[in-house]
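Task card 7
Instruction: Convert sequence to structure tokens.
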Amino acid sequence: MSMSEHAKMQDLLTPFRDHYHNRDRAARMVHAQGMRVIGRTSFDVPVEPIIAAGFFPLMLTADLASATPLADHYVDPELPGETRILFETIAGGDYEFLDLLILARAQDKLYYFLKEVYRLGRAPKMPALMMYDIMPSLRDSVSAYNRNRYAAFLERLTRLSHGRLTDESLRQASLLTNQIRGLQRQVQDLRLRGQMKGSDALHVVGAGSFMALEDYASALAHLLKHVPTSAPSAKPGSGLLIVSAEPIRFTQLHELIEELGGHVMAEDDAWGSRAAGADISLEGPISQAIFEKYTVHSPGPDSFPAEKREGFLKTMAAHAQIGGVIFYVPPSDRKLGWDLPRLTTLIHAMGKPCVSLFKDLAKTNGAQQIRQDLQSFLSQHPSLMSHQGK
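Output:
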């Protein structure tokens, strides 16, 4: 990519980076203009009913460098840092402007700690809470429970929106998000061709969680229309796939890998390459199609059984452009460690190297150890350090 093309690319990426690093700004701006805002803490919470009901959807994330004096008093120290920081900001009143905050099953401990501190009268500025308790299973008995919880979710939004949530508004919302999914797939194609860095792709994909989705779709289309069309430069087997035990809500790991000469082409994560997933079917009842999108065709890596959960990983790891896999398993891991030996064996059986990073990137000592581990891994596999074609 020439200097002029590089400068053009940076200009195209600026609005995405701006929203990615100023995550609450758009929501607070529209709230000040009179629009109502609903927060969510997970991609497991469907966004289509929220926008169909006329609300701005905001994804809540934690600044991992934040102090947690309130959480230190009320929350178990063994819980992940993100849980403690979200408790701090929510209970402390930072999100008082939300009309509703919806937490998914993965945040059940956060939900119960917030309920208790509210019961004690210690969080008077906390927004109304709802637990979207969808279980990650396709068994018939569980499916019945999940449908009940989904119906309660829709009923709550219908009531809050004074009936604005309808089948037609759900269909229009689904058309918009399907458009976005198609554009995000094109972003992934750019990555596999070596025309977009992994950290840039995270900015582009992640910004959609903090923007008005109509604006996001327009920005994505503009980016893809004007992205520099230099020749594909990625060599087969030169890319890296990241598999993380924690959602990849920030770009530090990608930036470190890039600094060391590696090129991340994909992530087994809804903040990255899993973001699009399958489209919502527009045939038949739209409410049912949305439910199936977020259960049967869930974009996240937390579903069951293992065959469903690991399908994306196996497909992407087998891609010709992927030459190695990085497992990020910090001490807060609640799932990947159990499967790590088997997954490591799987990757090796594909003839591809992998490395496991067990320290916490958010801590100084952990980041230093991860740097050393990555440097050693990449130096042992030089084909992963030079993705530029000749």
